[in-house]
Design goal:
alpha/beta, Rossmann fold, 2 domains, eight-stranded mixed beta sheet, 43% helix
């Protein structure tokens, strides 16, 4: 069984799983880079990676900085920072052009990669990708605006303990599960990441993209996938009925067959 190994990318200790293609693989196998979602690790991409490696693909799955066994970044990162890191990861492994599979946050990073670094990729397969802002109720925006005004006002008059107490209570009541689970630089990173509207990047993705979505996904609802399908110039959407946020795992067999077929077909961008 292939073991997780470590490399250093831009000073960050990075865990990775490299799955060589099967013994029947061609001399120059297609190479796939797989990017996991927020708050998890490469292990959730491993089942799909192993299936594709068995079909002859060379598969690279890193733990992105701050997740799994990889060290966190020194300062809070945004999505473009993660995209730059991934390009540095490709450079470190001397990978010129690869196929990309991204789930959730990994799909979010993929949107920036597809817009800003299209020459490094062949095709994209994104599952339940993030990047489209949630639809907020007017009361939610009003509550947040009021909270920030009061908090910042307290800091300005030197009432630091009161401001800190207000922030703690607000975060405990209204912060998401992912926000609550993160701490330190990764909590700051989470705030930066979720507040980035990546729809302009999606419009600039220059690669053929296949989207997979579960119609029961509650983290990145189906309407987000439908919007991405409209925004990405060359995109198609496959909907898995009854599947949730990890649709690619719930329909693993179907995903493997579809991705294999898609990656092996010629496209306008390959």
């Amino acid at each position: 069984m292939t073991e997780i190994s470590f490399t250093t990318i831009n000073g960050i200790k990075t865990a990775e799983l490299i799955l060589p293609g099967s013994t029947n693989a061609p001399a120059n196998p297609r190479t796939i880079l797989m990017l996991h979602g927020w708050g998890v690790s490469l292990k959730l991409m491993q089942p799909l990676g192993e299936k594709l490696a068995a079909l002859g693909y060379m598969v690279y799955i890193p733990d992105m900085p701050g997740f799994g066994d990889s060290a966190p970044p020194a300062t809070a990162w945004g999505v473009p920072d993660y995209a730059k890191f991934i390009v540095a990861y490709l450079d470190a492994h001397q990978l010129n052009r690869v196929y990309l599979i991204g789930h959730s946050f990994g799909g979010r990073v993929g949107l920036v990669l597809g817009a800003d670094y299209p020459d490094r990729f062949v095709k994209f397969a994104l599952a339940d990708a993030a990047g489209v802002p949630e639809k907020k109720a007017p009361t939610t925006d009003l509550r947040l605006t009021t909270y920030k005004a009061v908090r910042d006002g307290l800091y300005k008059i030197g009432a630091t303990s009161l401001a800190d107490n207000l922030r703690t209570k607000y975060n405990a009541r209204y912060g998401s599960a992912d926000f609550q689970a993160a701490s330190g630089v990764m909590r700051e990173t989470f705030v930066k990441v979720v507040n980035e509207d990546l729809r302009p990047y999606a419009q600039r993705v220059k690669l053929s993209t296949l989207l997979f979505w579960g119609d029961k996904d509650e983290d990145t609802p189906l309407w987000m996938g439908q919007e991405l399908e409209k925004l990405i110039p060359d995109a198609g959407l496959i909907v898995y009925e009854g599947a949730g946020h990890y649709s690619y795992l719930e329909r693993l067999g179907e995903t493997v067959k579809t991705v294999d077929y898609f990656f092996k077909q010629e496209s306008k961008s390959s």
